[in-house]
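Q: Please design a sequence for this.
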């Protein structure tokens, strides 16, 4: 299974579980995450979701083998990516995430939908859309400027450069940094602390913080999906994916 789910008291643990691939994200993983979030939302005993991953990487981004087939070809409105993104945007219980290593592409955009993000001192973040011939997703075109500021968001998304843990903390992308061997214990402690509070009050607090932005966020998500569906059929993606598998630098010079 691409995701492992278990209950720990009032906390639902959702763990990306494809360590042999660096937890690459594909349609099956997004569908499993969507279903796990729906189950946690419907379970009155769950007060907090604790999101993590196995292996050395939080996730190394989208599975480029699937890019070749274009998972949005059948219509983005029915895609697992879109449905999972909406679940994240609308999720009414707190999500505490831990990031132990590289969080590339969807890994970096997904954590923007989490309430608290605790990073290892080995963590790193990349928003590689320009370098892959695609555009932002998972609501990041709205959420990243909100989190780190408009100017910095443009820098990170347009240059596709790596952001280290310290820069991510200073910018507001993550909540705190801890030594690598303390990461899981610290994230568990924060999740347990929140789960110990009155669930109704915590949900009401998140809803107040969430509802201010929800309509704009949903509009941004739909605009992202429309743009992504178009770009996935374009020549820039084919060149980027081909270059990756051929271990060369992509050449976009002949493209618009």
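A: Design:
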């Amino acid at each position: 299974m691409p995701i492992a789910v278990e209950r720990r008291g009032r906390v639902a643990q959702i763990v990306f579980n494809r360590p042999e691939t660096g937890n690459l994200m594909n349609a099956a993983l997004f569908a499993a995450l969507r279903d796990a979030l729906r189950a946690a939302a419907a379970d009155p005993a769950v007060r907090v979701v604790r999101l993590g991953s196995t292996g050395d990487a939080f996730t190394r981004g989208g599975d480029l083998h699937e890019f070749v087939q274009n998972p949005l070809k059948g219509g983005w409105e029915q895609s697992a990516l879109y449905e999972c993104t909406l679940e994240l945007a609308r999720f009414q219980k707190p999500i505490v995430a831990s990031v132990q290593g590289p969080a590339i592409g969807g890994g970096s955009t997904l954590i923007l939908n989490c309430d608290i993000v605790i990073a290892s001192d080995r963590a790193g973040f990349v928003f590689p859309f320009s370098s892959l011939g695609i555009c932002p997703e998972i609501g990041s075109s709205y959420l990243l400027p909100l989190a780190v500021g408009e100017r910095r968001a443009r820098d990170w998304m347009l240059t596709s450069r790596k952001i280290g843990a310290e820069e991510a903390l200073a910018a507001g992308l993550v909540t705190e940094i801890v030594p690598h061997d303390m990461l899981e214990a610290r994230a568990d402690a924060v999740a347990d602390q929140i789960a110990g509070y009155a669930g109704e009050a915590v949900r009401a607090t998140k809803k107040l913080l969430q509802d201010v932005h929800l309509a704009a966020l949903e509009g941004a998500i739909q605009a992202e999906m429309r743009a992504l569906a178009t770009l996935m059929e374009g020549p820039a993606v084919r060149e980027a994916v081909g270059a990756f598998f051929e271990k060369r630098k992509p050449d976009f010079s002949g493209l618009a």
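Q: Thanks. Anything notable?
A: DSSP finds eleven helices and nine strands in the chain. The mean pLDDT is 95.
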